[in-house]
């Protein structure tokens, strides 16, 4: 497979220094940038798929009329949170 290059990028010296400061042993700046681009691509794909699923679920609920009121969901979550806090051991 032939390789391709990403456009070169001019950045402030502080950004380059910050990137270099978090490199792990043996990692190059180029490797870090490539990994960051790959992770960003995956994050955007996952977010786009999530939005598509959410819109489909909204449409399905609209067509079926089967909704759960947001206030009911929030109340249930608050009860769960309150119960979890009550079970938590106080920090010392």
From TrEMBL:
Superkingdom in the source lineage: Bacteria
NCBIfam families, alphabetized: YlcI_YnfO_N (NF041551)
Name assigned to this protein: Prevent-host-death protein
Organism: Rubrivivax gelatinosus
Lineage, top ranks: Bacteria, Pseudomonadati, Pseudomonadota, Betaproteobacteria, Burkholderiales
